[in-house]
C-alpha cells in the first residue's frame, strides 16, 4: 500500500524518517519514495501514525495500542521529536483502564 504524504508533518515527529529522508539525497523537491516493509503493525499502524503526525486525534484502544507503541518505537517517535509524542501517548500510565471495553467486546 502506498501513502502520499508531505514530509514536513512526518519529520516533525519521527527520528527514523528524518534519517531516511536525509539519506535519500532528494534536495530538489521531487518525490521521495521510502519503503517501510518492517514497520510493526503494518499499514494499519502506519495510517494511525500518519494521522497523529498530521494532528488528527486518534483513539487509543486495546485493539491498536500495542501495534501503535511498536510502530512508534520503530520510528523513534520520542520526546526528542516533540512533546507528547506517540511513545509517551502509548505509555501504560497514560491510557485508560480497558477492562470494561474488553469485556464488552468479548461478550458480543
Task: Record the SSE blueprint.
Elements (H helix, E strand, L loop, with lengths): L6 H5 L3 H9 L18 H12 L11 H10 L11 H4 L9 H9 L1
InterPro entries: NPH3/RPT2-like, SKP1/BTB/POZ_sf
Protein name: BTB domain-containing protein
Pathway: Protein modification; protein ubiquitination
Write a structural description:
- This protein is mainly α and 108 residues long.
- The protein has one domain: 2-Layer Sandwich (Potassium Channel Kv1.1, Chain A).
- The protein is built from 6 helices and no strands.
- The protein has helices spanning 7-11, 15-23, 42-53, 65-74, 86-89, 99-107.
- Helix 3 (42-53) crosses helix 4 (65-74).
- The mean pLDDT is 75.
The total count of helices amounts to: 6
Question: Mean pLDDT across all residues, rounded?
Answer: 75
| Class derived from helix and strand content | mainly alpha
Query: Whole-number radius of gyration?
Result: 15 Å
Strand count: 0
Strand content: under 5%
Cα end-to-end separation: 31 Å
| Uncertain residue ranges | none
| Helix-residue proportion | 40-55%
Number of domains: 1
CATH fold title: Potassium Channel Kv1.1, Chain A
Q: What is the molecular shape?
A: globular
CATH architecture: 2-Layer Sandwich
Amino acid at each position: 500500500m502506498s501513502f502520499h504524504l508531505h514530509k514536513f508533518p512526518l519529520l516533525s515527529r519521527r527520528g527514523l524518517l528524518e534519517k531516511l529522508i536525509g539519506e535519500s539525497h532528494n534536495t530538489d523537491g521531487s518525490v521521495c519514495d521510502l519503503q517501510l516493509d518492517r514497520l510493526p503493525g503494518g499499514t494499519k499502524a502506519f495510517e494511525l501514525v500518519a494521522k497523529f503526525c498530521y494532528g488528527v486525534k486518534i483513539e487509543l484502544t486495546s485493539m491498536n495500542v500495542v501495534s501503535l507503541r511498536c510502530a512508534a518505537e520503530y520510528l523513534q517517535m520520542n520526546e526528542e521529536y516533540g512533546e507528547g509524542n506517540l511513545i509517551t501517548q502509548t505509555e501504560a500510565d497514560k491510557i485508560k483502564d480497558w477492562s470494561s471495553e474488553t469485556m464488552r467486546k468479548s461478550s458480543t
